[in-house]
Amino acid sequence: MRRLPLTLLAAGLLLAGGIASAATTIPASAVKTAEQLRDTALHDGTAMAVVTSLTTEVGPRLAGSDADLRARQWALAKFKALGFDKVYSEPVTFPLWQRRSESGAIVAPFPQPLVLTALGYSPATPKGGLTAQVVKFSSLDALKAADPASVKGRIVYVDYRMHRQKDGHDYGMGSAVRTGGAVIAAAKGAAGYLLRSAGTDAHQRIAHTGVTGFRDPAKAIPAAALSNPDADQLDRVLAYGKPVTVRMDLDCGIVGEYTGANVIGEITGRKHPDQVVAIGGHLDSWDPGTGAIDDGAGIAITMAAAKLIGDLPQRPDRTIRVIAFANEEMGLWGSRAYAQKHAGEVGKFVLGTDSDFGAGRIWRMSASVKPQARDAIWQIAGVLAPLGVAYDASRPGGGGSDLSQMHARGMAALGLTQDGTRYFDWHHTANDTLDKIDPAELAQNVAVYAAWVYMAAQAEGDFGSAPGAFAKDGTGE
Ligand SMILES: [Zn+2]
């Protein structure tokens, strides 16, 4: 090695020292404990017991229904029973939408019933139903381009078909057809809106519900999803080239306001109680099923992971906060209320993400953190690798669905992608029930969360959370 002038050498040492002090690392003892947590979690039945309890004792949990209150009482009691130090709730107010009854039929040329389900924020049809001619579009873009004269007074039907994928990316368009398509159809003067269910099952005569983008009830029209086989049937009838008339008979709508709550449990940090590692899921579900994969699983995974850390002989350095969010399904109401309330403390949310993509194995991790925290993320990746989780350093973290709002305000975030190959077969349907959860896959999720959450709680240094720090990542909404 060439000899360097002393001053240069000193400057180099200073620089190296500066970088070393800024870099975030996870102590070897914490890595070891994280590995033990990971291995323990694989044989721990807590998450399965939690999701079984929630889906059995509360069942469906439509936001604002009687079960909303029962779910919150359940969450408060469950956090306490699992040994959380601090359990509380924060109110969330949202429009109260109710589903009372729904049916549909082809009136002409071949009269017969259709299986459909009303969408969130859909108003009711007039008494006796809404009967109108159907105008079909093969895509959202085709609807966007349509002349309003071709749509006015008709029932718009958008026929977009989702396909199974590991990362479930067709839901990007599937949900856009449901939320945005309904709004576009209404703006063009349509009388009603139908879509092929945003779901990947092809042979189940069960429709997938979900929210629309209607925010102003004065501009909303009755909107519903057809089951995939019923959409196929409507396609066949339309293919005769004759005018097709459909009746939608929906009794549903907004009946006022409701105040629910985000329910929160904490394992209090020993050294830095005000610094938080944030995880969670959403407590509400759609009403046809029992909300097992969406999102009883997320509640169970994160409660169980934090509980395992709480079972350690010593409290972690930082606080672990599990948030059971209110009303995610009808537009991230709990998430947005939470981010609004806590925006000023975003720098104290050290790292976070929520679980809301079912109960399949986690196969990919990504992160939105400051450059000096990348090594710590690689340390986390090293502990997760034996679980089959690959770290993709080229992707942003995102923070899940509900914590995306805190991420948008500057919280450093992970992205933990579950295997969603079958998720959209059952999502938002009567088939979202406990039997769809594989206990071993659920336990793998708990292992991932227990390990990374503990490592984030013990990290020496932070991950870059600060107001506006990750503005480029977008909101994930
Ligand atoms: Zn969900």
Which properties best describe this structure?
single chain; 477 residues; alpha/beta; 11-stranded mixed sheet; 3-stranded mixed sheet; 13 helices; elongated; disordered N terminus; binds zinc ion
Counting helices, strands and paired strands, the structural category is alpha/beta
Q: Give the terminus-to-terminus CA distance.
A: 54 Å
Rg calculated over all Cα atoms:
24 Å
* Low-pLDDT ranges: 1-20
| Percentage of β-strand residues | 15-25%
Ligand catalogue: zinc ion
Please report the total strand number as a whole number: 14
Shape: elongated
- Helix count, per DSSP? 13
Mean pLDDT across residues: 94
Order of helices and strands: HHHHEEEEHEHEEHEEHEHEEHEHEHH
